[in-house]
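[#protein-structures] MJ: dropping HTH lysR-type domain-containing protein here for a structure pass
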Amino acid sequence: MTPDLDSLRLLVLVAELGSLGRAAEELGIAQPSASKRLATLERRLGLALVDRTRRGSTLTEPGQVVTDWARRVLHEVDGLLTGAQALRERQDAQLRVAASLTVAEHLAPGWLGELRRSRPELHVGLRVANSDAVLDLLRRGEVDLGFVESPTVPRELASRVVAVDRLVVVVLPEHPWARRRRPVDAGELAATPLVVREPGSGTRETLDRALRRVTARAEPLLELGSTTAVRGAVIAGAGPAVLSELAVATDLAEGRLVPVEVPGIDLRRRLRAAWPGGRRLVGPAAELLAVATRPRR
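AK: finished. structure tokens for HTH lysR-type domain-containing protein:
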């Protein structure tokens, strides 16, 4: 008959601890029960596995070989259980969401919190990436709903505006742009090396579209992969940047950064939810979209 796993664990513990009593204690069973379980294991295998004396328990030569095999079996079982748990967790992620960084940092937490209050049993898997990467995840069917900052959404995806955001040029209070009376125009902004987000981000695409008629464009001062990194570089004195008002609202209110008006360019943008085209959203994805588009005071 096939040995049970508990008996194999007992054998391994006897080998490691050198005592049947200590092995029984480790498993939380009485010593007579452990002794009976070990005897049953020996009977099933037809081998004497352990020599028991007053000084403790030691493995016989066959016992050492069987114990090595038992360790392998238990290791494989642990791998099976760990893998099954991972599959369960993936299966239990009933709503798969991806969001671009500005949305993920400043809007999605509130939306998801509101959804979870009404659906506490719902498990949400959230992936954070730039807008291009979010759109790719949607195309590949890896997420149910995405939130992006890019000015356009590909035709094969359905979309809906969930919020309106505005980018703002920000500098340190000591920067010359913060003190001068004459406004900065689009040409000067375009000719100035800026701290910018990486290509593929909605913030970068919005800025590039706003300055698309300006031919003399400076190379970026720094290209960074997150809004937080861009903000930190500006505060550290690297140079001007163009960021979402959502990301710098506190800095502007507390005077760490100063906004610079640039007449003649439109830095507003629409934040959108997107999902595979030709498909009506249902279930948790539809509920999250309803939360995101609900009017706010």
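MJ: nice. The longest strand covers residues 157-171.
AK: one more thing. The chain is about 45% helix and 20% strand.
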